[in-house]
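We modelled each protein-ligand pair independently. The example shown here corresponds to the fe (ii) ion entry; the chain sequence is given first, followed by the ligand as SMILES.
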Amino acid sequence: MLEQNELEELRNRLKQEFSGYYEKSGGKNYRYHHLESTRKHVIEIMDFDVVDRDEVDEKVVEISSLFHDIGRKEDIEDGVMDPFEGHEGHAGRGAKVVADFVSDFLEESKVEKVETIVGNHHSQPETPEGKIVQDADLLTNYGVSDLWRMIHYSSEEQRSMPEAFEYFWDNHMPRYLDKLEEFHFEASRRWARKRITKHQEAIKNMESEFHAEDR
Ligand SMILES: [Fe+2]
Ligand SMILES: [Fe+2]
């Protein structure tokens, strides 16, 4: 695990890359907050003991989670980033630059592990560490907190509130269900399912209030 002073320094480096910009359907400095949230998720996933703790290098996992989307820094243009543009390339771009940010915190062989995890985070992870990071990244899309992005995205697309609800049931929800298959660990999948239930409840509550059916 990272020491508090190491974590602070790494956070500062990330903040330098992902501050003072606006991310479409994510808001101000979204990527920084997503990376910090992914780090919190990897800690919880490791706590489920999904893999033998002696098999994983927790520091490698934590650092990879913080920097997995570092390639996205190149997608910020004039203070704005569209997360749907440049998506294909950001893992590979990140693998090339991540050492510049983390090599003074890890020995060389471990920096290489981080590069591999970052490079594979949208394809097939090769190691237990990579699987943990991938599950954590996926989990950050699940749950009531994703309403934040739904509302931002609806606003970008100039959708009405009923259109946003319809889009949720017809597009978002099937995608959340499909993506359950992508989890590597049952514990992460269970967690995502729990969030789906809460998310559906939240949308149903919004809709019933909107139609004055909640009296
Ligand atoms: Fe990514
Ligand atoms: Fe991510």
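The beta strands are 22-23, 27-28, 80-81.
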